[in-house]
Design brief:
The complex is a heterodimer. Chain A is an alpha+beta fold. Chain A has one domain: Winged helix-like DNA-binding domain superfamily/Winged helix DNA-binding domain (Arc Repressor Mutant, subunit A, Orthogonal Bundle), CATH 1.10.10. Chain A is about 70% helix and about 10% strand. Chain A has a three-stranded antiparallel beta sheet with strand order 1-3-2. In chain A, α1 packs antiparallel against α4, α1 crosses α5 and α2 crosses α4. Chain A is elongated and about 75 Å long. Chain B is of the alpha+beta class. Chain B has one domain: 2-Layer Sandwich (Alpha-D-Glucose-1,6-Bisphosphate, Chain A, domain 4), CATH 3.30.530.20. Chain B is built from four helices and eight strands, in the order ββααββββββαα. In chain B, β5 and β6 form a beta hairpin. The chains are: A alpha+beta, B alpha+beta.
Chain lengths: ~110, ~170
């Protein structure tokens, strides 16, 4: 549990930045070299590499250097953890609203009878 | 039996907000009452299989609702909603916080700001709840808590209450 929470902590920090979110979205489609990932951004390579390290530390992506090319790949397990939390929240709200549907129906039934 | 009612659930991690929209098959005044009277709130607010119990209630600007959500083992999860602004029957704003049984807000846990709006949609009512946290770290703290409580893992089989109603 502790490990799970710690990893979520870094995960949310990692995803709090728009550049990093865009990189993850790109990598969901398939692996890509750092050079290609950095191309859309008006940013020095060292700055971009910092984003890559944050994503790697969060476990969202992995990278591997072959020759002079560093290729990044997406790690789906980590994002699944965050998605699970939001799914759980959605379930809570859905359950609460189902209760309210029930109550509203009951209340309207009472009004109709009088 | 359940009509096709709109339900949007949008999480924005960058802004640390949750936006929840839900349509109800009832007039706005009735939906408003269900949100603003504790004898009605007690009947629906906690998600299954938890139940809601109000300890004190004052629906006025500056007032608050102190309540517990109780799980099947009898564990009480105490919360408090403080009402900031109220515009019947259009909406209200306030803060949700975690408390103990006496209603004292736990300063170590983040509070969230709540903005509730109610609008007509034909004969139905559309509600929108925007839950905002001050920072991603605050949202994170709440996420971690939810996991520790195990509250989120026990929620299932919602349809049983619909069956209960028709019986």
């Amino acid at each position: 549990m502790d490990n799970y929470n710690a990893s979520l902590d870094t995960l949310f920090h990692a995803l709090a930045d728009p550049t990093r979110r865009a990189v993850v979205q790109r990598l969901v489609k398939g692996p890509a070299p750092v050079k290609e990932l950095a191309a859309p951004y008006d940013m020095a390579l060292p700055s971009f590499m910092k984003h890559i390290s944050v994503l790697e530390e969060a476990g969202l992506i992995a990278s591997k250097k072959q020759g002079r090319v560093r290729t990044c790949t997406f790690n789906p397990d980590k994002l699944a953890a965050a998605e699970k939390w939001f799914d759980d929240q959605r379930t809570i709200w859905a359950s609460r609203f189902d209760n309210l549907d029930t109550l509203l129906t009951t209340l309207q039934g009472e009004t109709d009878e009088t | 039996m359940k009509p096709d009612l709109r339900f949007d659930f949008i999480a924005d991690m960058q802004k640390s907000t949750l936006t929840v929209r839900r349509e109800f098959a009832a007039k706005r005044q009735l939906v408003w009452d269900c949100y603003t009277k504790c004898e009605l709130l007690d009947q629906w607010y906690a998600p299954k299989p938890l139940t809601t119990k109000t300890k004190s209630f004052d629906f006025n600007e500056g007032g608050h609702w102190h309540f517990a959500m109780i799980d099947p083992n009898g564990t009480h999860y105490w919360s408090r909603t403080d009402y900031e602004t109220i515009t019947p029957i259009d909406g209200y704003t306030g803060y949700d916080g975690f408390t103990d049984e006496t209603g004292v807000i736990n300063p170590d846990l983040p509070r969230s700001h709540i903005n509730m709006t109610f609008t007509d949609k034909g004969d139905h009512t559309l509600t929108e709840t925007v839950v905002s946290y001050n920072a991603p770290e605050d949202l994170q703290t709440v996420i971690d808590m939810g996991m520790e409580d195990g509250m989120t893992s026990t929620l299932e089989r919602l349809d049983e209450l619909l069956v209960k109603l028709t019986a």
